[in-house]
Amino acid sequence: MKIAALQTAKVSRPLNKMFNRYYWLQIGLIALSIIIGLSCSAWVIKGSLLKTALEQEMQHYWMRVERDPQAPLPDTKNLYGYRWIEQRPERLQSLTLEEGVHRIYVDGKERMTVYGERYGQHVLLVFGESNVNKLIWLFGLAPLMFSLIVLYSFLWWSNRRARRYFSPITRLANALEQIDWEHQLKQPSPFQDINTDGNLEAAYLKQALEQYHAVLIDFIRREREFSGDVSHELRTPLTILRGNVQLCQARYGHDRALTRLSNTIEDMELLVDTLLAIARNTTNTLTAEHSKVSTIIQELVQDLAPVGRSKGIEIFYTLEEPEQARLLYPSMSKMVFSNILRNALNYSQGATVQILQRKNQILIADDGIGIDLPDDSKVTELSESQSLLKPKGHGIGLQLVQKLCKQLGWRVELFDREYYLNIHPELQLAATSGLIVVVYLAQD
Q1: What pLDDT sits at residue 3?
Q2: Alpha carbons 366 and 358: distance in angstroms, whole number
Q3: How far apart are CA 392 and CA 381, in angstroms?
Q4: Residue 329: exposed, middle, or buried by beta-carbon count in 10 A (0-12, 13-18, 19+)?
Q5: Which residues touch 329 (CB under 8 Å, ≥6 apart)?
Q6: Between the CA atoms of 21, 25, 28 and 29, what dihedral angle is there, to the nearest 10 degrees?
Q7: Taking the chain (444 residues) in consecutive chunks of 10 residues, what is each chunk's mean pLDDT?
Q8: Residue 285: closest CA among 294, 273, 295
Q9: Buried b (16+ CB within 10 A) or exposed e, 96-109
């Protein structure tokens, strides 16, 4: 089994990245709106306005012809035309002409044209769009580009000002995220070298963070000193007890009661070491060994059998298939199963406690009175059931069992017995009232 290491991932979200995102988002939206605006303008100018203008030019030309049949064709920088009576000009021979405004290929380019026939004359007016494109550029795109440059320059300046104003807060937030609390007692305050650049809010925040940091460091120092004192005070009587038990064993031989007392003292020493390691968040200093969970459970069953018989409860253990040795912390694992079993003996008020070990699951079932779980859920986290258990028992507490399981990379849940057996009919257990605690071991 691999022990899961629980580490808190530090996700950095500095404020300057947020401002950069909004800054470039603004630029993108403005550029998109300008592109859409220019496209709409070009469509309106080249479509509706030019069509109307060409139709009016053609109508005006026919009015001139009505007054003077020899009226000349329009000939300006933007508009020119062709006129014939029977034979088309050579450059227009291959064209298909229809009445009205159309876009056709004339004089080497696709152009807007208007064709009409009156008074025996055929007339084709051609509009020079290249000039219109130049006008759009000069009076449309160029002013827009100039205004964009001014606008983007202002946005860049305001963004720089905003980043300068908020950068001290960003540096304070990054310093807070990067604090190494394990070694912070030997290091100076991480906020002392941060310059607030005259930002009063950042200066107040820096002062508050330094005070909070000092309070936390003092608390951590006192907690570690207290843990050290408690460790010494707990180990001293256990050492004396171990020495006296060894003297008794040397004088009276290895009596069964003395052996059990010696094993209990050893378990207490492991318990003290484990609890202190958890309190200090230094469980990596504990020794991991290759061993079997079944061995730990069998030893617990043997030790707790007299306690169960005194309460009229029998403990049964079943191993479904042979188990391979796995890497685990024996002391922490023993604490988990010992506390669950003791709670089953103290709280169940039944006649049996059955332990079923499957591949990666340990089921501990009792046939007692159970507890009232919510109607909409017949399963709960083990730590949540602490308030539901009315009798006062012994052990290290269900919440600590939950924490130990997290340290081991396990998961533990509490089920209503009848509900669990309904969804797992393959289990050879009687469908009675009671509880089932399931410990999900980490897969190999």
Answers
A1: 33
A2: 17
A3: 19
A4: buried
A5: 3, 274, 283, 286, 287, 288, 289, 408
A6: 180
A7: 35 54 75 74 68 85 86 83 85 83 80 85 80 63 75 74 65 76 70 73 81 84 75 79 86 78 76 70 72 91 85 90 86 85 82 91 88 59 50 53 83 88 87 89 78
A8: 273
A9: eeeeebbebebeee
Distance of CA 72 to the CA centre of its chain: 77
* Residue linked to tokens 């009276």: 252
Task: Please report, to the nearest 10 degrees, the dihedral formed by the alpha carbons of residues 64, 65, 69, 70 taken in order.
Answer: 60
Do 3 and 288 contact (CB within 8 A), yes or no?
yes
Tokens, residue 53: 């203008």
CB 347: neighbour CB atoms within 10 A?
A: 21
Structure tokens at 180: 């190494």
Q: Residues, the chain, total?
A: 444
| Sheet-wide strand order for 121-127 | 79-84, 121-127, 109-118, 100-106
Q: Closest Cα partner for 168 from 191, 189, 135, 149?
A: 191
H helices of 253-366, in order, are 256-279, 293-310, 330-347
3-state secondary structure of 134: helix
